[in-house]
Amino acid sequence: MLSIEGLSASYDSIRVLKDVSIQVPRGKMVSIIGANGAGKSTLLKSISGLMKINKGRILYKEQNIAGLPAYRIVGLGISQVPEGRQLFAHLTVRDNIHLGAYHYYKKRNRPEIKERIDKVYQMFPILEKRSKQIAGTLSGGEQQMLAIARALMARPELLLLDEPSMGIAPLIVREIFDVIQQLNKSGTTVLLVEQNAKTALKVAHHSYVLENGKIVLEGLASELLDNPKVKEVYLGG
Amino acid sequence: MTDPFNCMPKICEGGVFAILTFLIQYRQMETITLESQLFQYLITGVTVGSTYAIVAIGFNIIYGVTEIINFAQGEFVMLGGLIMVSFHVALGLPLILAFLATVTLVTLVGMLLDRLAIRPIRRPSVLTLIIATIAASIIIKGAAMLIWGKDFFDLPAFSGRNPITVLGAVIQPQYLWVIGFLIIIVVILTIFFNKTIIGKAMSACADNADAASLAGINVKRMILLSFALSAGIGAVAGITVTPISLMEYDRGAMLAVKGFGAAVLGGLGSFPGAVIGGLIIGTIESFGTGLIHSGYKDAFALIVLMVVLFIKPSGLLGSVEISKFKRF
Ligand SMILES: Nc1ncnc2c1ncn2[C@@H]1O[C@H](COP(=O)(O)OP(=O)(O)OP(=O)(O)O)[C@@H](O)[C@H]1O
Ligand SMILES: [Mg+2]
Q: Which of A14, A237, B64, B226 has a 20 to 30 Å separation from B218 between CA atoms?
């Protein structure tokens, strides 16, 4: 579904991604692990269009989407949950959810939007209870749920998740990952970026290890869990 | 440049002065009680303040999407007044047609401002963009001087100049038009920003531009829209106030300062705040001019503004919570 070939990207003159190639097959969950500053977020931003890339191709359903603006890419079915949630902090929970559907927010799509709202409220019942609350005042866990809910409103076929477990209590992390796995089972392709390598390797089918902007290792997630190097560096020995 | 429209005799002050001259003449006809006099100041202040409020709302719309303070905001008002004079008085277009044509034209100027001065800046910081708007305001003012010269221009009042007397105060029908249009603008914008998805998308851009584009919002188009909207309502303010206070090419800067004062007074970004701030500044100005001295007209408002900011830096209705997020 997504195939990245020889991607390079840089901030000013500092190269952050160096010749990165990854594959995300349809229906699978692929994870990328790596230390702080490895370039994980930059990779996701390159896919979603927030980051200008220098070189390489980003093929999504056989179409090269590199260089398209972000607001067009979401219309193609790629939706990103950005690192640190990035909610519309002054708007209500409900407004955040509605805005997720912005790119197809037309009268004739109303029933579909309504249906999707019901669905995300089903996934995260707490959001329905808080629907009139200002998003910036939600707890960290609730904010992450809202960020995911907003991204799902865009009816993604490929969901990009940037560290959904960051700063969240283990119990809530489990709840969020349950939802992500369900989504994946029901057909949404997922590309997950995590520093929490253990979780990322447990839930994914396939994984890549990113180090200083380069892919240094890849394989079935279950194999990487047993890989001595991964064990030492990312799983704490 | 000669004056093609044979305008009114030149008066060297703006609206408040014209109103006062009128008052003095009126006083000779009838004795005026203190109460009616005070009421008169209030009405005048609310009228002048409505114009400031509209300018302040214009500031807020653009600020709300971009965090830019658009100092060319006052030029939209000036252009509204002068273009209306050309369409309605010089070309003789009927009132409503001239009104719509003027608002459309000024809206286009606002969009051009975005396309020519704001968008081309490659690595925008809020400060460089603000400087760009100041530069633009100087250029617009210069162009207006070339087109209309330095004269004051008058417009016929929308529904005549026969004053209505209420509680001993003289109310020009045009005052009601000015206040009425403020109300219309506030109602329409409130619905737009609170009920429509495009209005919410505009607020979303201000909150988080990257997240907005991830949701499919074309942030640049929203910025363009914000400039169009503020220019449009600025034009309305200029058209409605010109029959009261006349209009000339260099009125914009002072209007921008007063409108900015109103916006800050009410709390930058707050629409109700803009209205309250505008009305307060207009009223203080009117009372100060009437009771103290017209020479200090422009100082009163700014002094009050400074006092308020000293006591409550986020403005009357601005929340501290929100001002924490502000980058500027
Ligand atoms: N806007 C920016 N301007 C300049 N450099 C940046 C910018 N954003 C990121 N970088 C740099 O790019 C490198 C990769 O950053 P990136 O955010 O992609 O890392 P990451 O793998 O997501 O890290 P983390 O796990 O901490 O989120 C870092 O060295 C970072 O300092
Ligand atoms: Mg990151």
A: A14
